[in-house]
Specification:
Elements lengths: L20 H40 L4 H28 L8 H20 L7 H17 L1 H21 L11 H40 L17 H20 L10 H18 L2 E9 L2 H8 L1 H18 L5 E6 L2 E7 L3 H16 L2 E3 L4 E3 L2 E9 L6 H17 L5 E2 L1
Parallel strand pairs: 6-7
Antiparallel strand pairs: 1-3, 1-6, 2-3, 4-5
Helix pairs in contact: 1-2, 1-3, 2-3, 3-4, 3-5, 4-5, 4-6, 5-6, 6-7, 9-10, 10-11
Length: 415
């Protein structure tokens, strides 16, 4: 066997699988659908909120109903038209989340709230604006993220400052001194910061959970959900733990070969595609070993299938004990096995293959009725991150090397 003159590139893979462009597109479409539905649903929240606010202003406002009726009706009509027209635009829009429509609605919320507070009360009660604005901030950050939540908070604070210090009062009353205004704005900023931090973090964690679920939905049971980032345990943490436990159980039930405990063919194909994407992304190397038991049919014919199963299980145990935590051992069926070695060059792959071959050659497989030693043949293939090779192509190369190892006399490694 001649070793190719390629430097070793052994290492450890510690990164989780990354999403593919197709998966990102799926998540984006799901997000767009959710945002569109949320905006359309929020129309009724906005209408109900406006109705409640107008009723409070008319019943408990400081001005008479006759004086307030026209300006309040004008603000309400403008707001209703804005929400209705925006809703119609949302129905027709191809993209919502990346458009300016959510920001337009948040702006309309704050301006309508500020206008009604200014029209129906004195500067002394302008803090009512900030109470209502907390709801706007919460909805903005929960559905649209940090940026829009911060924008809603800043716009609300500016509206409060304008009512108390800039705009002419619509009702007689004491004007808050600058120190009181600063204290109120500071308290509002503190509460808004807590809301934005909590709900913004919630969305990020939820997005990680959605990505994890999509990977599992596509059959990729390899990724592990990182719970270490959840520094604020809550019900979402419990949900994530439940999903992680479910993934592990699914991996045990449908991702492994029942006889040997190795990955099955479907899990191998998913894992190999994932590792190949990682290798291409980092311009690293990925080795694949195709392993076949020599004369396995004769073992079954001579000693029976129960002993053949014992040999297969023993061989799988040797491979799993030799492999690293980041490697993958799979059984394709019969006596065919595949070992995936991430971040491994020619030298490391050939060393690993020879180590397995030697360990199998030195092992005696024993049952109450039979005892024998066996040999294996190993074919090695390698993909560099810059190579335009697919997972199926890499498997085929390894299989061709295995064929040459068996044609060359068996009990050997060929690359």
């Amino acid at each position: 066997m001649t070793l190719p003159a390629v430097p070793s590139a052994m290492g450890m893979t510690v990164e989780l699988p990354v999403s593919t462009p197709e998966l990102e597109e799926t998540l984006h479409r799901d997000r767009e659908s959710l945002v569109r539905d949320a905006l359309l649903w929020q129309r009724w929240v906005r209408y109900a909120g406006l109705l409640a606010l107008v009723a409070l202003a008319l019943v408990l406002g400081e001005r008479s109903n006759r004086d307030m009726l026209i300006p309040v009706a004008s603000v309400s009509l403008a707001y209703v038209l804005c929400v209705a027209l925006t809703g119609e635009r949302i129905r027709r829009a191809e993209t919502v989340h990346a458009s300016r429509l959510p920001a337009l609605l948040v702006t309309a919320d704050v301006l309508a709230l500020a206008s009604l507070v200014w029209l129906t009360g004195s500067p002394a009660v302008a803090s009512r604006l900030l109470l209502g604005a907390l709801l706007v901030v919460q909805l903005a950050v929960f559905y649209f993220g940090w940026g829009l939540g911060i924008y809603a908070a800043v716009l609300s604070a500016l509206g409060y400052i304008a009512i108390t210090l800039v705009l002419p009062p619509q009702m007689p009353g004491a004007v808050p001194v600058l120190r009181d205004v600063a204290f109120t704005v500071g308290l509002f900023t503190l509460v808004s910061a807590v809301l934005i931090s909590a709900y913004g973090s919630f969305r990020e964690r939820m997005n990680r959970l959605r990505l994890f679920c999509k990977l599992v939905e596509d059959g990729d049971l390899h990724p592990v959900l990182d719970l270490g980032m959840d520094k604020r345990p809550d019900d979402l943490t419990l949900l994530a733990q439940s999903f992680e436990s479910m993934r592990a159980r699914l991996g045990e039930q449908i991702g492994t070969d029942p006889l040997t405990g190795c990955l099955n063919r479907r899990a191998l194909e998913t894992r190999l595609r994932t590792e190949l994407r990682q290798a291409k992304r980092r311009a690293n190397t990925l080795a694949v070993l195709a392993i076949d038991l020599d004369h396995f049919k004769e073992i079954n014919d001579t000693h029976g299938h129960p002993f053949g199963d014992l040999v297969l299980s023993g061989l799988a145990n040797i491979m799993k004990e030799t492999a690293r935590d980041t490697d993958a051992v799979a059984r394709l069926g019969g006596d065919e096995f595949i070992v995936v070695l991430p971040d491994t060059g020619w030298e490391g792959a050939l060393t690993f293959a020879e180590r397995i071959r030697r360990r199998v050659d030195e092992t005696t497989f024993t049952s109450p009725r039979a005892s024998m030693r066996i040999t294996i043949s190993v074919g090695v293939a390698l993909a560099r991150g810059t190579d335009p090779v697919s997972a199926a192509g890499l498997m085929q190369e390894a299989d061709q090397s295995l064929y040459k190892a068996k044609s060359g006399g068996r009990n050997r490694v060929f690359a």
